[in-house]
């Protein structure tokens, strides 16, 4: 996921959290964005424009009447060039001016002239943030179409603790990505994604499980979110991955608990993408106490788990798009196509475990998309990129 070809205007106002913003500017620049920083005069008391100029390779704009080599109306040129505008930190003073249309410096003037998505990240003392006037101003800005990024909670520069901290740099970058990185071809759609491995208990200590790490499912959930979908992620509770921002996450452990979550969340969705690795069998009986080591072999009686996708295929509403994943070690396309038909799916993603760079625990994959209309073999690429291809194909199918 990149911001190649996108112009980001980064507004920095005069709060102590301004020291975090070079990291944000650098991260956006590394993603391919053309980053232009506009600072208030007060912000220059906390960090110098030269830092931003070095990182972004663009002149940092502060005053309204500075030298302009291109002889253009600079605030209008910046506003027109911007694909997204992020103001962070946004002080109470800047928020008040923006809420009431006051444009008395370069930052507020550019913002008033910009028609792109506008994001503000309030950062200030807790009492200032919770003051009714500030809250009214934030409500006004939301009504005018601004995205208000919730403040974090923790230690504050004033020595106290509470709400009002600037969110972590990575989250600010995620807000920018969500605003402009992808076509919003899934906007207004509800998508449910499953991820990770089920765990079927043998006793209070041991489980039957598999090697799935959830990386593919998490990549699909993130991609659908960036394409504008309202995403619910049904995730195995043992997944050791950072949460996917802007999605609702519901955890499961066993195949039965995943089945219940699918029935609750997916049957009124627009699309269900089953990337979870679900156990086909579970112990017929779960021991109440830890099974002790014996002198000989141990025989376990197993029983079938619910076939979740088969149930969905038999009971789904006609407008629910269903996509399954098929992990195979032989006859990959034939076995996967058979699953597509037997489970009444709209698409299945066939994955050959024996292909280098594919499978569990790695960041890449090699898959073939199979639909009733044909197959599409994708080359080795990141799971993130595959997630975006899936989001695009599903958006096209839903249209």
Please explain how this structure is put together.
By secondary structure, the protein is an alpha/beta fold. The protein has two domains: 7-180, Flavin prenyltransferase-like (Rossmann fold); 190-398, Rossmann fold. The protein is 32% helix and 24% strand. Strands 12-11-8-13-16-17-19-20 form an eight-stranded mixed sheet, sandwiched between helices. The longest helix has 16 residues, at 383-398. The protein is elongated. It starts with 6 loop residues before the first strand and ends with a helix. The mean pLDDT is 94.
Q: How would you describe the shape?
A: elongated
So, the CATH homologous superfamily of the largest domain? CoaB-like
* % residues in beta strands: 15-25%
List the strand order in the largest sheet. Answer: 12-11-8-13-16-17-19-20
Helices and strands: which structural class?
alpha/beta
Number of structurally distinct domains: 2
Q: Overall pLDDT, averaged?
A: 94
CATH architecture of the largest domain: 3-Layer(aba) Sandwich
Helix segment tally: 13
Return Rg in Å.
25 Å
Which CATH C-level class of the largest domain is it?
Alpha Beta
- State the end-to-end distance: 24 Å
